[in-house]
Amino acid sequence: MRDTPITPTTTAAKATTTTSDSKDVRDQKILTGDRATGQLHLGHYVGSLKQRVELQHLNQQTILVADMQGLTDNGNTPSKVADNILNVVADYLAVGIDPAKTTICLQSGVPALSELTMYYANLVSIARLERNPTVKSEIQGKNFGRSIPAGFLTYPISQAADITAFQAQLVPVGDDQLPMLEQTNEIVRKVNALANREVLRECQPLLSNISRLPSADGKSKMSKSLGNVITLDASDKTISQAVKAMYTDPNHLTVDQPGQIEGNVVFTYLDAFHPDADYVAQLKDHYQRGGLGDGKTKQILTDCLQTLISPIRARRQALIADKGYLIEVLKKGTEQAKQESQQALDNVKAAFGLNLL
Amino acid sequence: MRDTPITPTTTAAKATTTTSDSKDVRDQKILTGDRATGQLHLGHYVGSLKQRVELQHLNQQTILVADMQGLTDNGNTPSKVADNILNVVADYLAVGIDPAKTTICLQSGVPALSELTMYYANLVSIARLERNPTVKSEIQGKNFGRSIPAGFLTYPISQAADITAFQAQLVPVGDDQLPMLEQTNEIVRKVNALANREVLRECQPLLSNISRLPSADGKSKMSKSLGNVITLDASDKTISQAVKAMYTDPNHLTVDQPGQIEGNVVFTYLDAFHPDADYVAQLKDHYQRGGLGDGKTKQILTDCLQTLISPIRARRQALIADKGYLIEVLKKGTEQAKQESQQALDNVKAAFGLNLL
């Protein structure tokens, strides 16, 4: 199953520069979001949620709960999307995304996103969509062939609608998602050329020095359906078991032996999640010269993740028990988004000359 | 250029049963419309407009001015669409379509049409779209190849949205458009299967015993861009010239000779437009046995068309001079259509489980 969000939320910090990058960003319109196809997990936390909590203080951030995009490969199993909308909202609020600072909206509640998609679809060829490297590899991964749903092949157009509807300047992405922004900016240039003025503005990626957080076995992609993710409401026991099962250095047979940290998932997670980078550096040295066992490093990681998740889990449990509140939050954000997106839609319609009524 | 409307408006009566068919239809929701890519002409008049004037008395008829569909092959020349919206509305009113009886609405003014298209796009594969015989032949005709705009390949999905948004039971079409209704009904069945109840109803074609009205040369399709159409505001002189240029029987060299009526465009038009079928039958007999010249038959057709068009032209000229009124009519109809389509959208969203807000 595709767990690709509209931003690469399953990415992890390679270095600790991710968050400091975010802190330098201010006064920008930012659009980000997630496909509503499952609970969010640690990959999302480190790849995007943490950054969003920071970005919301100095920027105008909109987060899209992308239910319609979730349908593009779940057309016949829509409950996978419907059942996860409030899960995603609860995850947002539990990690500290503040609806008073960030507009959290539901994609299907904002008609302008569909309307813009329809206009843009006239400016993008099927060949161009098929050349999109991100979509190409996803199609291959799914063995869609020509039976690919029309909504799936065209979802980069829908993403362009999402981004431009909010006149976003910055879109947090991993480099695997850059082709999506190229497609968006191509559309922007075409609309501007039609109108012979700047109707829409091009967006820029907010790239962090990040790479995808590996799954516990170090081999596959993190995926809820593969059962190899740690969700944001994971119990202490689940966390402990997941860490125990993590891939380390298969040649590190005794504590005394020097161990490898490359490809060692425990250290990748420590890099991503441990608050004390100096301490992690010391652990790495120790592990590499020998004398530090996997049991010990796994215990450190378990403690670290349990400490991180414990308060998030508590808040999340309280939130998910109050669905009325979650709906209220989503309703309010969606109403704001409806109003905000109307301007871009009006401008695009005018560019096509369709502003008669 | 594609002049295919969302109903086959460039069709002509082969027999006089077209209108009597329409008179038997009652208490039906009917959806029809035209791409707003040019003034309507005699092909539209006999193929659909005349029928609509009759249908509106006993049915709930919605006519869509399909500006967004017009963009699907005019993405880079949108003024061709924008400039023709009011032309089409003026044509409707000039022939007697009554906005008090028929909802005349602008496609781009009804967001539910775009939204439904997005949902349905997840239920239709690219392969299925490419197999659509109507689209296939249009793609070939345009030499699109893979550079076909995404909006064009997917326009059958958008048509399904148009039809189902108004819960249309009957869609007037020529048999070349039947694949469009098949596509619509496939989507209807998929949505109903998702919800396990009848969310949408299948539509039926309102087929008349009609064939496409030929252009004056008898060879090509009628097309505004080919300059071989008689528009509904054609002057007496234009009509007279167009009829003079019509293809008859090339072997009918003297008046005395017997003439052929098969492929004789003058007789095809007389069949389609002359109010007195018995008289036309007598003319045919006379022509076939010899003694009736093309000058005479052309004069009869010219008189007939001038009589038909003269009052339409006068009303049309008055209407097009009052753009404010045309906009008012379109605005009111579009507002009605917005309200009416909301129900189908709500139902479809519920079928996908996306009725949270």
TrEMBL record, chains A, B:
Residues 1-25 are annotated as: Disordered. Its EC number is 6.1.1.2. It holds the Pfam family tRNA-synt_1b. GO terms for molecular function: tryptophan-tRNA ligase activity. The keyword ATP-binding applies. Keywords: Aminoacyl-tRNA synthetase, ATP-binding, Ligase, Nucleotide-binding, Protein biosynthesis. It comes from the Bacteria. CDD domains: TrpRS_core (cd00806). It is an enzyme of class 6 (ligase). Transmembrane segments: none annotated. The keyword Calcium does not apply. Residues 1-19 have a biased composition (Low complexity). Belongs to the class-I aminoacyl-tRNA synthetase family. This is Tryptophan--tRNA ligase.
